[in-house]
Amino acid sequence: MRVEHDGETGVQTLASDVDVVDTFLSRARGLMFRRSIPDDYAMVFTFGDADERDLHMVFVPFDLDALWLVDDEVREKKRLRSWRGLGAAVADTVVELPAGAADDVEIGDTVRIVE
């Protein structure tokens, strides 16, 4: 499984090591208590519908790039700072990546989870 970005410069793989979290407990834990993540890693939060989705960085000791998607379209992008970052937007899928991995992603681009 991988996360692909389709933007102005073509298709680019953002992550090839992907964890999909789709249960209440796995979503609640997210990346808390991890010391680091690999450069090619993504955590993907999947939901059945588009709604307001909040992220926090409590107990996450490294910065992240977060993407809020609706039907694979990027609706919001934010760099979340370790320990104190907060973010919220409407999404049916949220993707967390290492800080800098989403630098080329823009609002309106397509980001897909590919099997």
Automatic annotation (TrEMBL):
UniProt protein name: DUF192 domain-containing protein
Transmembrane segments: none
Signal sequence, renumbered to the chain: none
InterPro entries recorded: DUF192, Saro_0823-like_sf
